[in-house]
Structure formats: C-alpha cells, structure tokens
Recover the amino acids of this structure.
C-alpha cells in the first residue's frame, strides 16, 4: 500500500521531513504548497510532488491520505480542523500555535475525528531519551536543571513575539517537552525574561533574548530552565535530573544520556536520526491505524505549549501561573 502525503510548507524543516519520508518505499510525496513559490517548486523537483496554489487544494482526500503541516505557528489558520474533518491524518510541526484556547478547540476536533495525529517533538524518539525515561520510572527526582543556549534565528517573523512566541515557545519547547516526557506533568511556572542584547542586533525585534524560568511539577519536584538566543560562542542543550541516589544527564539535545548511581556509571550516545524515527512511526501508525505508535500526539503537543505560553504570561504579569 502506498501512503500519499501532502505538504503545506516547504521550508528547510519540511524538506528534511520529505527526505526521510522518501527513504520509505511505502511513501509517496503527492502534493505541496508554500507561499514561497521558489521553495515550493524546489521541493516538488526533489520529490516529484504536484504543486498546488493553495493549502485547501492540498487538503483533498482524493489526492492524499496524510498531511505534514510545516508552516510557522502564526500561519496555521484552520488547517488542522480542515484536514481532520476530511479524514486526513496530520503531522503538525511544533509549536502548535500561540493561543491555547484555539489549540484546545483544534485538539478536540482532531480527537473526535479519530484521525492519526502527531506533533514535531522528535527528541522523544531517540533511544537515549527513552532510556532516561525507562530508568526514571519508579524513581524520585527532586530537582531538574535545564538549559538551552544558542544563537538567533535570522527570520524577521521569528524575532517578532506576536508571530513566534519567542525563543522559549519556539525552541526551548524541546527541553520543556523532554522534561514532561521523562518526569511527568508541570504544576506551575514562574518566569522572567530580558530584552537587551537583541535590540543591538535588531532594534525592531520584540522577542526576549534570555530567560530564567522556575517551575514545580505535580510530583512535587522543583526545577529551573535558563535560556538565551544570543549565545554565539557557546551552545548548550541540557537536562539534569537529580535524585538522592542517582543522577541523569540528557545532553546535546537528547543525543547523549549519562546515568550514574551506586551500581553504574554509563554514557550512551544515540546514532539515530530522530526525524527519521519520528516520521517512520507516523507512517506506521497511519498504515496500521494505531495511534499508540505515536510518542507525541496533538494532545501531548498542546500540554507542552500550555507550559510555554504560561511562562510568557508569568513574565508579563510578574506572577506564578498554575497550569
């Protein structure tokens, strides 16, 4: 059976998805749309997909079985609802949006439609991250320290808070999601953000350039996340989980995991392409009708978004926000 997939959005991330999907013999990239005509035609040349002049034209169940929605978070409109109502299975890139109420309504429509759904939290599919999750089952974490330090995205929309949500919502979301995946749900968040260095780079930018976020989780543990999108000489993507009788360190965006306790001191580095594993799971889920193969559903992505948006609200209102 051939799985016909359409793409809405044909940027770099979309084309990486296409590349991994074309490695699967059961997949056909059938159609593509992007407002950037040059990108759209380039993607079509690389995949053999038909080019359409609107997202609605791509969302035709006579042409596709599933769709990858890879537009920026501010440009989703009603794509998910339209696909769901037409019975088209969906993969949606992270973050899912910028308005939690809107995303909640979308999640309900997706759930009630019964379609297979997945979101772009690819790091869950790394064997190292799953090893950390398995190890932590039944163990009591009392402290989490996480960080994400890297440079700024060049796109003007990304540096506009109302369009991207900022670095925390758009990028640090991966660390937020890994924390949820390996150690449970958040209870509250208190965040402070700054906006100083980025103004020297781009006076029109409205996103924050650094953040210090504290949180508690439903289990009772506490933690913190520090982040910046203005670190051009040091990159770091770490989550450290402390127990009274163990230590777990997930580093390099999940690529490496270190586990230390009285019986072991091991370090494992993943050789997997998390995007390939994620997309393989989506294809298998659609072909088999098994949502349980997916490690990050639309509902899961919504919960991660809820924490990120609550952090922005906390900073704006200068108070702790309960989830």
């Amino acid at each position: 059976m051939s799985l016909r997939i359409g793409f809405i959005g044909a940027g770099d991330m979309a084309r990486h998805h296409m590349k991994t999907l074309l490695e699967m013999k059961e997949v056909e990239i059938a159609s593509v749309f992007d407002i950037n005509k040059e990108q759209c035609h380039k993607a079509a040349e690389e995949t053999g997909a038909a080019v359409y002049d609107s997202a609605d034209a791509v969302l035709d169940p006579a042409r596709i079985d599933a769709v990858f929605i890879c537009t920026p978070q501010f440009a989703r409109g009603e794509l998910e609802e339209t696909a769901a109502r037409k019975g088209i299975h969906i993969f949606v890139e992270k973050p899912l949006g910028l308005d939690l109420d809107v995303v909640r309504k979308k999640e309900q429509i997706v759930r009630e439609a019964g379609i297979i759904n997945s979101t772009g939290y690819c790091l869950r599919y790394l064997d190292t991250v799953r090893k950390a999750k398995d190890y932590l089952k039944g163990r009591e974490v009392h402290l989490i320290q996480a960080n994400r330090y890297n440079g700024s995205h060049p796109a003007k929309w990304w540096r506009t808070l109302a369009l991207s949500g900022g670095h925390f919502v758009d990028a640090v979301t991966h660390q937020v999601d890994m924390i949820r995946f390996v150690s449970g749900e958040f209870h509250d968040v208190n965040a402070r953000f700054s906006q100083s260095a980025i103004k020297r780079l781009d006076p029109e930018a409205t996103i924050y350039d650094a953040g210090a976020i504290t949180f508690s989780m439903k289990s009772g543990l506490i933690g913190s996340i520090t982040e910046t999108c203005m670190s051009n000489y040091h990159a770091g993507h770490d989550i450290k989980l402390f127990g009274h009788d163990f230590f777990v360190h997930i580093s390099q965006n999940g690529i490496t995991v270190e586990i230390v306790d009285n019986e072991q001191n091991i370090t494992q580095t993943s050789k997997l392409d998390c995007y390939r594993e994620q997309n393989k799971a989506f294809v298998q889920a659609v072909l088999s009708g098994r949502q349980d193969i997916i490690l990050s559903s639309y509902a899961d992505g919504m919960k991660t978004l809820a924490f990120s948006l609550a952090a922005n609200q906390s900073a704006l209102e200068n108070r702790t926000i309960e989830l």
